[in-house]
Specification:
The protein is mainly α. It is 76% helix and 0% strand. It is elongated. The termini are far apart. This is TetR family transcriptional regulator.
Length: 205
C-alpha cells in the first residue's frame, strides 16, 4: 500500500515576519555587527536557504528590521497617541508617564533599538544612516505638527517653536535611555524622564 507523505509548507509571509522578529531581538541583544545569523535561524527553525530567499545579505536583513520593525514600533508608541488626544501636552505627559511606570531592567540592559543602531551604524554605513535619520525626522515632524496644532487650539504657548522643541524632546528621550543604559540604573532613566515631564508641562498655556 502506498504511503502518502504530507509535507508541511511554510507561509512565505510568516517566514519573513519570523525572520524579522528574530533578527530584531538578536540585534537588540548583540548589536548589528555582532548579530549571528545562526542564532536567528535557530530561533525561527528557518533554513538558511529560506533566509537568503527573503534577504540576500545580513545587511539587507538589518535594513529591513529598521524599516519594517523599528519604524512601526515608533509609530505605535509615539505617533498614535497624538492622534488620540487633541492636547499634545497631555499626550506627551502620558507617554512619558507610561515609560516611567513600565521601566524595568530590560530598558537599561538593551537601551533603545533606534538609538543603538544610530550609535553603531551611522558612522559605518550611509544607507543605514539614511534609514535611521528618516525615522528620527518622522518622529520630530509628527511631534512638531502636534505642538503646532496645540498652539492653534490655544493649548501650547504661542512663543514655542514646535520643531525646535520636538527636536529637543526626542534628543532628551534618547539621552535618558542612553544615560540609564550606561549607568545600568532604572532610577537614573526615570529621573531624567521626570524632569522632561516638568519641561513638557511648561509648554502649556
Amino acid at each position: 500500500m502506498a504511503i502518502q507523505v504530507i509535507r508541511k509548507t511554510r507561509n512565505p509571509e510568516q517566514t519573513r515576519s519570523d525572520l524579522l522578529k528574530a533578527a530584531y531581538h538578536e540585534i537588540l541583544e548583540s548589536g548589528f555587527q555582532a548579530a549571528s545569523l545562526e542564532r536567528i535561524l535557530a530561533n525561527t527553525s528557518v533554513s538558511k536557504g529560506a533566509l537568503y530567499h527573503h534577504f540576500g545579505t545580513k545587511r539587507e536583513l538589518g535594513l529591513a528590521v529598521v524599516e519594517e520593525v523599528i519604524a512601526p514600533q515608533l509609530a505605535t508608541r509615539w505617533f498614535a497617541p497624538f492622534a488620540e488626544h487633541d492636547n499634545p501636552i497631555t499626550s506627551l505627559h502620558r507617554i512619558l508617564e507610561e515609560k516611567i511606570t513600565a521601566a524595568d531592567e530590560s530598558v537599561i540592559r538593551y537601551g533603545c533599538p533606534l538609538n543603538n543602531l544610530i550609535q553603531e551604524m551611522s558612522p559605518l554605513d550611509e544607507e543605514f544612516r539614511r534609514g535611521l535619520q528618516q525615522i528620527l525626522e518622522r518622529w520630530i515632524t509628527v511631534m512638531a505638527a502636534a505642538l503646532a496644532e496645540g498652539q492653534n487650539a490655544g493649548k501650547v504657548r504661542a512663543d514655542v517653536q514646535p520643531r525646535d522643541v520636538a527636536l529637543f524632546i526626542v534628543a532628551a528621550i534618547e539621552g535618558c535611555v542612553g544615560l540609564g543604559k550606561n549607568a545600568q540604573s532604572v532610577e537614573a532613566y526615570q529621573r531624567g524622564l521626570r524632569q522632561l515631564q516638568v519641561y513638557v508641562k511648561s509648554l502649556a498655556t
